[in-house]
């Protein structure tokens, strides 16, 4: 599948880190309206720089556009690419409003094109293996989940000085103005929907606790930097989700069942393994619980117990740079599989559902519970995870 990047900013370098894992993808080149930024990216990675967006879209060899522009440009660039007859994979969010996102989904369907959107954390080996264990009854009946998406005290880390491998600045202004839920909640929501099905109702509270954080980068204050939500699923399953750019980094997902608890230490860690502790009152069980309580004081998300080993060990590698072991390019590869007629593990109904829930999570204090209207297709597990 021949692809091209539109947008050569910070996140584009993260996609390049794992693109080499997916031999089904061939990067033809990239375009950015900032010529210096595009040249730096092209030079760093040895890729072609297109003269214009039109030149990129008119390349007869191009199959799919990967939209890595700033959030305000996502919808416009995606619409232009679809109108040009190209499949599109977009960074999140798909659009600024749910109505705008729905219009893009309808446009893609009308043109017979495939459209998908990040995140793809439900496609990690860790989440897929956890879903496999849950379906096999290893945890008993699922009761409750605790999902953390605290990205660390970002304002205290001088993010205005952060640079990617090719020298792109971290988009602090965009991130602050977007809000933490619309920007980051999907990393946990996608795994939760994979595990439990659609979110039926959301009770949320959000706030902007550090309105001054964006002054140095010219960001308008007001978007939430803290969102807390109670998510209700079928069969009485409830999840508590916290999202913030304030608390110490914690991206763990814990699923409590009637017979065991499983903890995935970091949903950004694609090769990571969940650990399972059975319910019990023996000396061993009590010792494990005490040890975990002690560990929680210095390592949020850490867990002891039996590792849920994936039947398909991860072979993911990062070619350059550091950062989390998150395979950004996996979503592109999965969409390419759907284009070729394979299973669709990034359906547009899931994208719309995650956006609807994320918007609900940004509700201010005192808001009533919100019933979710969009019912997504729950993605099928990978073949290796269905056994």
UniProtKB/TrEMBL annotation:
InterPro entries: Gfo/Idh/MocA-like_OxRdtase_N, Gfo/Idh/MocA_Oxidoreductases, GFO_IDH_MocA-like_dom, NAD(P)-bd_dom_sf
GO-annotated molecular function: nucleotide binding
Residue ranges occupied by any GFO/IDH/MocA-like oxidoreductase domain in the UniProt entry: 127-262
Domain Gfo/Idh/MocA-like oxidoreductase N-terminal: 1-115
SUPFAM superfamilies, alphabetized: Glyceraldehyde-3-phosphate dehydrogenase-like, C-terminal domain, NAD(P)-binding Rossmann-fold domains
Name of the protein this chain belongs to: Oxidoreductase
């Amino acid at each position: 599948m021949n692809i091209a990047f539109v947008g050569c900013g910070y996140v584009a370098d993260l996609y390049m880190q794992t693109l080499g894992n997916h031999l089904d993808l061939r990067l033809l080149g990239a375009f950015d309206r900032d010529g210096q930024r595009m040249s730096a990216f092209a030079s760093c990675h040895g890729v072609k720089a297109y003269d214009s967006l039109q030149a990129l879209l008119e390349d007869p060899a191009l199959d799919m556009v990967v939209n890595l522009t700033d959030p305000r440009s996502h919808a416009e660039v995606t619409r232009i690419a679809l109108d040009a007859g190209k499949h599109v994979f977009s960074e999140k969010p798909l659009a600024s409003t749910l109505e705008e996102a729905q219009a893009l989904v309808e446009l893609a369907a009308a043109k017979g094109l495939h459209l998908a959107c990040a995140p793809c954390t439900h496609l990690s080996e860790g989440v897929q293996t956890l879903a496999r264990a849950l379906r096999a009854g290893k945890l008993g009946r699922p009761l409750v989940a605790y999902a953390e998406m605290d990205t660390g005290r970002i304002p205290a880390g001088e993010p205005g000085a952060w640079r990617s491998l090719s020298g792109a600045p971290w988009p602090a202004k965009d991130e602050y103005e977007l809000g933490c839920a619309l920007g980051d909640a999907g990393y946990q929501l996608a795994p939760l929907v994979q595990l439990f099905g659609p979110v039926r109702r959301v009770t949320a509270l959000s706030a902007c606790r550090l309105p001054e954080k964006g002054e140095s980068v010219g960001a308008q204050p007001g978007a939430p930097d803290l969102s807390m939500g109670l998510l209700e699923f079928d069969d009485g399953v409830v999840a508590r989700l916290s999202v913030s750019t304030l608390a110490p980094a914690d991206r763990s997902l814990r699923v409590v069942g009637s017979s065991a608890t499983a903890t995935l230490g970091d949903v950004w860690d694609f090769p990571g393994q969940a650990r399972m502790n059975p319910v019990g009152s023996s000396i061993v069980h009590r010792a494990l619980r005490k040890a975990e309580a002690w560990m929680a004081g210095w390592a949020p998300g850490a867990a002891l117990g039996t590792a849920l080993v994936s039947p398909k060990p991860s072979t993911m590698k990062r070619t350059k740079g550091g950062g989390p072991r998150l395979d950004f390019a996996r979503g592109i590869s999965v969409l390419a599989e759907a284009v070729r007629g394979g299973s669709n593990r990034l359906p547009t109904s899931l994208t719309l559902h995650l956006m609807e829930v994320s918007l609900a999570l940004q509700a201010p204090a005192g808001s009533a519970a919100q019933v979710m209207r969009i019912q997504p297709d729950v993605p099928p597990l990978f073949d290796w995870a269905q056994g």
